Amino acid sequence: MTRKVRRNDHAGSSYFVFQQPAYPRDCKEVSIHVLYPQYIWSVLIKPDGYPNRLRVTCNNDLDAGGWTVLQRRRLDSVNFNRSWKDFRNGFGFLGSEFWIGNEKIAYLTNQKRYQLRMDFENVAGETYDDFRISDEWGKYYISSLGTFAISDESKIEWCPANEIFSNETCERTCDDPDTCISATSRKEKSNVFVSVGDFYVNPRCTRKSTCRNNQIIGASYQCSVHATCAKRNGVRNCYCNPNYEGDGETCTRRAQDCYDLYVSGTRSDGVYTIYPDGWPSGVRVYCEMESNGGGWTVFQRRSSASVDFYRGWSDYKNGFGNKNHDHWLGNKYIHSLTNQKTYQLRIDLRDSGSSSYYAIYSTFTINNEADKYRLSIESSSSGNAGE
């Protein structure tokens, strides 16, 4: 099996002014300037940024030539079950079987756009039009492979997530898949691995690092005054405090009543979710927004005999009916609602002749269940309903 790379000269036309380097950067540049036989066993090239010259094997026999050979494996005379260091630096003999080395391939494939060609015995070669691997920090991950031609089926088989290629097969990186290091992870300065698309927040929640495009992107990070720096379900982050919502950097108070919704711009009557103290999951209530100044939280409506109001303690504690029609909200909710702020109570009445009356009490609360939800209300009221 032989693997090679070649610059793709058909990716588009560009024009540059440059100084000719002292050494060719790949076998394509060798083939342009010098007429060589089909195979050249020892050629010096120097990829951009690579500190030293390196010897490679070139193949000028395939297609238009100019292929830089990365690997040859034919007779099993060289052991390919090697360590990370061996695959990093390369091993074998250029005249027979070898691996050129991941570090060299990283420099070589990131200086231009290259094709990858793989030739198999008795099988036509596979050509990929855009081949590139990352550096050692990126664990020599194949960051680009492009599309392949000639055959309808790729000859590359990828290891599943949380597995690496070792001992000539795919093996788990650890016993627990949840703690395995992904092949696309990157290492943050604090020795924490960050997977692609994931993030890491330092213990003080002052810096957040994100893995994007095979790079760690670090930025300053600060919790809102209404958030807490904490680690939950294994993830450290800024988390908004109870009754607040947001991403942790920005936290806004959730509506505690219909008046909060009105202030935030809600203007239509209907059923909404509010978050009184002690109810982090929210409570569904009917809000009257279109009359009497708006922002009223309705805890009772009784307009017909469609709902039976002759109920027991449990029903009045938990509530009953349909909030869009006749209902009682529930004493346990009214207690939480009326003890978090100072509230007015408005009672609207309509007689059989369709005459309307109302009364407004400036203060109104009910106590807890231990006090039997005792009503506390101002003794006098305003309005036209009288006492």
UniProtKB/TrEMBL annotation:
Tell me which UniProt keywords the record has, alphabetically. Calcium, Chitin-binding, Glycoprotein, Metal-binding, Signal-anchor, Transmembrane
Fetch the InterPro entries from UniProt: Fibrinogen-like_C, Fibrinogen_a/b/g_C_1, Fibrinogen_a/b/g_C_dom, Fibrinogen_C-term_domain, TILa_dom
Q: What membrane topology is annotated for this entry? A: Single-pass type II membrane protein
Q: One Pfam family from the UniProt entry?
A: TILa
Task: Look up the domain of life of the source.
Answer: Eukaryota
Q: Is-annotated flag, keyword Disulfide bond?
A: no
Where does the record place it?
Answer: Membrane
- A molecular function GO annotation: metal ion binding
UniProt keyword annotation of Ribosomal protein present: no
User: Which GO CC terms are listed, alphabetically?
Assistant: extracellular space; membrane
All copies of the Fibrinogen C-terminal domain together span 18-148, 249-387
Q: Subunit details for this protein?
A: Homotetramer; disulfide-linked.
Query: What name has this protein been given in UniProt?
Result: Putative ficolin-2-like
